[in-house]
Design brief:
By secondary structure, the chain is α/β, with parallel strands linked by helices. It has a single domain, classed as P-loop containing nucleotide triphosphate hydrolases (Rossmann fold, 3-Layer(aba) Sandwich). About 50% of the residues lie in helices and about 10% in strands. It is built from eight helices and five strands, in the order E-H-E-H-H-E-H-H-E-H-H-E-H. A five-stranded parallel beta sheet has the order 2-3-1-4-5, sandwiched between helices. The protein is globular. The two termini are about 25 Å apart. About 40% of the residues are buried.
Length: about 230
């Protein structure tokens, strides 16, 4: 899959489970659409029919017995289909693509798994994205105890996916992995304190996005896109 010309903007939302990414994507999408901006809201793993099928396999825990390399390849296959069928076409059409998780989640979750070769992970990453990288990544940061409390209030343990069932130590490691990514790439990544109210966090995100992209928003073609969330 070759690199394609891009006219839209790609904004990813990252952070540990329970940080409120999905809620804030919906708020930002509504705000941008109210301004006449074409928006695609999507997620990973998933976001396309093929990727959603793989999502079920991975989050159910069925892939755990296959080994860490196989699981990483399943995530990569889901991303390849998602980029090819959803993200790249939307960017070509001039849409703002808002994605709940992308490459940084792979780095924070699979990248910290013992025994997974980092060079292998980098090769897989390069093969799946067609050169597409986020223009802006918002890392919603919450302490691990807040993440776990929110998850326990949101759903029962039986309904949680395999990653949401992990304990405090793993949650703390993932949180730190996201913060490390932000420190390495400060031009792309902005850390948002997501322990406040939904409204406060939403206003901060909206202000940040409009400050960074406001000048070009008025020049984007006015077309409505769907949502894969």
């Amino acid at each position: 899959m070759s690199d394609a010309p891009r006219r839209g903007r790609f904004i990813t939302f990252e952070g540990p489970d329970g940080s409120g990414k999905s809620t804030q994507i919906r708020r930002l999408a509504a705000r941008l659409e109210a301004l006449g901006v074409p928006v695609v809201a999507t997620r990973e793993p998933g976001g396309s029919p093929g990727a959603d099928a793989i999502r079920h396999i991975v989050l159910s825990g069925a892939a755990e017995e296959m080994g860490v390399e196989t699981e990483a390849l399943l995530f990569a296959a889901a991303r390849y289909d998602h980029v090819r069928s959803v993200i790249a076409p939307a960017l070509r059409d001039g849409a703002f693509v808002l994605c709940d998780r992308f490459l940084d989640s792979t780095r924070a979750y699979q990248g910290s798994v013992p025994g997974l070769d980092q060079a292998f992970l980098a090769e897989v990453e390069a093969a799946t994205t067609a050169g597409i990288r986020p223009d802006l990544t918002l890392i919603l940061d919450v302490p691990s105890d807040v993440s776990l409390k929110r998850l326990s209030e949101r759903r029962s343990a039986d309904a949680a996916d395999r990653f949401e069932k992990d304990g405090d130590e793993i949650f703390r490691a993932r949180r730190q992995a996201f913060l490390d990514i932000a420190a390495r790439e400060p031009d792309r990544c902005v850390v948002i304190d997501a322990s406040g109210s939904i409204e406060e966090i939403g206003r901060q995100i909206e202000d940040l996005v409009l400050d960074r992209f406001g000048e070009e928003i008025s020049r984007l073609p006015i077309r409505r896109h769907g949502s894969a969330l």
